[in-house]
Write a structure and sequence with these properties.
Blueprint (H helix, E strand, L loop, with lengths): L5 E4 L5 E4 L4 H5 L17 H9 L12 E2 L2 H22 L6 H9 L7 E3 L6 E3 L3 E2 H16 L7 E3 L8 E3 L12 H19 L1
Parallel strand pairs: 3-6
Antiparallel strand pairs: 1-2, 4-5, 7-8
Helix pairs in contact: 3-4, 3-5, 4-5
Length: 199
Amino acid sequence: MTPGTRLLVNTQGERYRFDPGSLSLEFMLTGGPGPYERYEIAHTPSDLAEWFTGSRLALTAPLTDVRIRPAELAALKELRGALYRVAPALARGEAPSDDDLAVLNSGTAETPRPLVDPKTGRLAWAPPVTGKQLLGAVSRDAIGLVAGERSGRVRECSADDCHLLFFDTSRSGNRRWCSMERCGNRAKIRAYRARTETA
């Protein structure tokens, strides 16, 4: 599977691929506060380090040496909690709170450093990639969704029973579904059935 695309399982046990289009929105899939605690995968620093190796950061260069300390795990989870307030606000066209923006702004000190691997001549991340650098990468991505060229493109899936958030990368800016494989296909089936019933 392409880095950044995640395999999700719905409540009926059906599997489908989902690409949120953004590192910060992808990071929200690791769990979260309240009802999202049941999806928690970042129980330990090594759990989250392993998750990041399949994240969209690996689209730029492979992540092979990721080291997250317990304090960095806590900071990443604090950022994730803020994202659960910021991203839905953006999808509704609302401004995030000053407190949540402060969390995003405070995390941008460091990001993974790219370099040319002398052995392969290819792009790599300078090892080790730390939790602080990952915090910076996720924070910078989120800031790009709030302000800048990518603002105004966070969407919530249009399905009544789906609340996944994604960055709309479509040229027209009118993507409606988290995944055509799941919600988009279900909508097409419902529309087809409605047309055939009225015919």
